[in-house]
């Protein structure tokens, strides 16, 4: 019996799928642009990054926020270039970064077996596919209930203002005319 639709669409399995060649800005836009089947975007949702060859990586949006607070990660960073999550030497926790997800075909595994595999997978996440296309995730990760969503939404808002002012500045630059009387 395949993985149940109810399990795939459970609140804890909220995600946004974005291609690896896109930027952090694009992923955040996709996340913030409105309600989905899971309702209003939250930082505990997963960003699932689709690489070529039906390979997937993933990161919770709250960790993406943490990466953005590091100087080497910007809104223009390509999703394929995000750092990998690394185990902290003194703890079982991972440093913020992407995990390379285990993948299962929806029709070849039961819901119970998928839940067990998710528990044992990196980041406690399993990407569920049909014919190589992501159709959902199963996350066993405890989600955060912190009110930090506003900080990521604020970052998006500030970035939009910067982008808007950069466009206005570029449009308003005056290019001096070439002197036609040069020898």
Fold and architecture overview:
With 183 residues, the protein is an alpha/beta fold. The radius of gyration is 20 Å and the shape is globular. Helix 4 links the parallel strand 5 and strand 6. Mean pLDDT is 83; it is low at 174-183. The protein contains five helices and seven strands. It has helices at 5-8, 24-32, 61-68, 111-120, 149-172; strands spanning 15-19, 46-51, 55-60, 99-100, 102-105, 125-130, 133-139. The N and C termini lie far apart (83 Å). A four-stranded mixed sheet has the order 1-2-3-4. Strands 5-6-7 form a three-stranded mixed sheet, with helices on one face. The protein has a single domain, classed as CBS-domain (Roll).
């Amino acid at each position: 019996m395949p993985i149940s639709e109810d399990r795939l669409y459970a609140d804890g399995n909220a995600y946004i799928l974005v291609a690896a060649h896109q930027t952090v800005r694009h992923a955040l836009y996709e996340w913030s642009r409105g309600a989905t089947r899971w309702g209003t975007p939250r930082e505990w949702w997963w960003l699932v990054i689709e690489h070529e060859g039906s390979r997937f990586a993933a990161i919770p949006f709250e960790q993406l926020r943490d990466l953005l607070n590091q100087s080497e990660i910007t809104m223009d960073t390509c999703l394929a270039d995000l750092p990998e999550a690394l185990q902290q030497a003194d703890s079982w926790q991972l440093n913020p970064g992407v995990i390379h997800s285990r993948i299962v075909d929806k029709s070849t595994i039961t819901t119970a077996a998928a839940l067990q595999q998710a528990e044992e997978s990196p980041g406690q996440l399993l990407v569920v596919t049909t014919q190589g296309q992501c159709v959902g995730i199963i996350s066993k990760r405890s989600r955060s209930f912190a009110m930090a969503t506003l900080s990521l939404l604020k970052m998006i808002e500030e970035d939009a203002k910067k982008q808007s002012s950069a466009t206005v500045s570029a449009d308003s630059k005056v290019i001096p005319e070439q002197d036609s009387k040069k020898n």
